[in-house]
Specification:
Strand 2 and strand 3 form a beta hairpin. Helix 2 crosses helix 3. A 9-stranded mixed β-sheet has the order 1-2-3-5-4-6-7-8-9, sandwiched between helices. It folds into 2 domains: 198 residues, Alpha/Beta hydrolase fold, catalytic domain (Rossmann fold); 62 residues. The chain is 44% helix and 19% strand. The chain is α/β, with parallel strands linked by helices. It is built from 12 helices and 9 strands.
């Protein structure tokens, strides 16, 4: 492990992959996980939480976490196993875990399989399409989005993705974000997500009976600016099926990126 300023970085060997992870601070362990978002996306929140030990990582196959088999899908079960190994490696569990988007699905899968390692899960906007009545239509839409991207139509795929997610962007935003020159690793991560992560994540169905019975506290988070979006629907469905109410966080699906100070303050309240 090498240390730079207050951030310690390391590589953890897991079956089929080598995980890049980062650790900040001291105290009780909080893990911040995304999918496909990597450790860098959570760095501002991690800095603000450094009165705890805060662990972040690049999910398998993303950025600095290479995989042995690039054709292997990144399933919630595989990512949950990776996270369990990181928590065990740090030897600071049980942990609190904030998972956002696909990372929220990872965290829920971890609570199902290793509740001994996680005392609290904050599942921020998990895209659990399987919980919705119109899931077949949405799954067909996801398949079309994936096929569009793998056929090489980058902006077309993102336009379809945003439309299905009911995320409204200003005119020209998609072209500006995805239509120009981009770094090779960004393109590789994007292809990895579309080709091997999006479908298994959105097709995952939580075991609600297990999640209701585990000792892990499950908190479902929703952005206060996400009303009407697909992940608002999936998150409210999950919260209702678990017998609770969702907790509002500042911002929308990426509120932890857009307003890390407000998001962290709310996370502290919740924890």
């Amino acid at each position: 492990m090498t240390t730079s300023l207050s951030v310690a970085t390391g590589t953890l060997e897991v079956p089929g992959a080598r995980l890049h992870y980062e650790v900040r601070g001291t105290g009780p362990l909080i893990a911040l996980v995304g999918a496909p978002m990597d450790a860098a996306a959570f760095a501002p929140v991690a800095d603000l939480l450094a009165d705890h030990t805060v662990a972040t990582m690049d999910p398998r196959g993303i950025n600095r976490s290479p995989v042995d088999d690039p054709d292997q899908d990144s399933t919630p079960e595989l990512r949950a196993d990776d996270l369990s190994r990181l928590i065990a490696h740090l030897n600071l569990g049980p942990a609190a875990v904030l998972g956002s988007s696909g990372g929220a699905v990872t965290a829920l899968a971890l609570a199902q399989t290793r509740p001994d390692l996680v005392h609290t899960v904050v599942a921020h906007e998990p895209p659990l399409i399987e919980l919705l009545d119109d899931r077949e239509r949405l799954h067909a839409g996801t398949d079309d989005i994936i096929a569009t991207r793998l056929a090489g139509d980058v902006t077309g795929a993102w336009a379809k993705f945003m439309a299905q997610a009911n995320i409204v962007l200003p005119d020209g935003a998609i072209e500006g974000m995805f239509g120009g020159e981009r770094a090779a690793n960004e393109i590789a991560d994007e292809l990895r997500w579309f080709g091997h992560e999006l479908r298994p994540t959105t097709h995952w169905r939580p075991d609600l009976t297990t999640l209701r019975s585990v000792p892990t506290r499950i908190i479902v988070g929703i952005g206060d600016a996400s009303a009407g979006q697909l992940c608002d629907r999936t998150s409210r469905a999950l919260a209702g099926m678990l017998g609770g109410e969702p907790v509002l966080f500042p911002g929308d699906h990426t509120g932890f990126v857009d307003d890390p100070t407000g998001f962290t303050a709310r996370l502290r309240e919740v924890l």
